[in-house]
Write a structure and sequence with these properties.
Blueprint lengths: L1 H41 L3 E6 L4 E9 L15 E3 L3 E2 L5 E7 L2 E3 L3 E6 L8 E7 L4 E7 L6 E5 L14
Antiparallel strand pairs: 1-2, 1-7, 2-3, 2-4, 5-6, 5-8, 8-9, 9-10
Amino acid sequence: MAMVTYTVSVSFDAFVPRERLNTSVRDLADVLRQARSESVSRNSEYFVEYDMVEHRYRMITPLSLDGQPWIEGVDPEEFRRATNWEHLRQGVVFDSVTLAGTIYTEELVRVRFDPLGSASDHIVQISQPLYEISFTLEVLPLTGLIRFHEGIYERDYPTDLDFN
């Protein structure tokens, strides 16, 4: 009986870490899809903000807390309506967000979704360091759609030499 209990507990421990990472990836992808969808359907810019230090994210709307349009330069940023912060699952962290070729690891990063369905060109690296597993979400700039990559994915960005 002890052998069966040990085997089941070892199998469960091996399964849970991957599931925590997969759940974090699915939850983040849902928020990214929602931001794109809301942006298109409401004909307004929506944003997703990543907190690289606290390992959390949220969607920011074009509305103020009172439901009226938020006006940049007039209304304070703290009066802008945003969803609650969503934390990544226990043991799962943001490694980096690459926004238009610049890598961010320890700051707030805000990406944009516009009414035409396009988005800020960005790549999100998420990992579970204890188990050395990682996953990458790539948000395509022209369509705002998401590509999923198991492990670490790095895109080659064009340089000036590519256009000579």
